Amino acid sequence: MPRAATTSDAFNAVAEPRRREILVLLATSERSVGEIVDALGCGQPSVSKHLKVLRDVGLVDARREGRQVFYRTNFGALRPLHSWTNTLDQLWRRHLSRIKERAELASAARKV
Length: 112
Hints:
alpha+beta; Arc Repressor Mutant, subunit A
């Protein structure tokens, strides 16, 4: 099955590591494209393309001030991603807890 376009939803958009870096960078403060380029050390065209994808799926908002555009993370749009990763985190914690219990039981059985 072919993969969905990166602009179809937030999950596909954040599959790209550079976009995740941009989201983390924007989580701390609003920044212009130039500031993002400087912080990440990559080209402006690349950053602009990534920002377009993130904006198209609603993960970042933009604000124009004169000739500059400032971007910021849209935390409300991150909620579905957070919920999904939180569910996986809970599943992993339960799974690891069961592994720990089994290991402790096996260790106790060997001591007897």
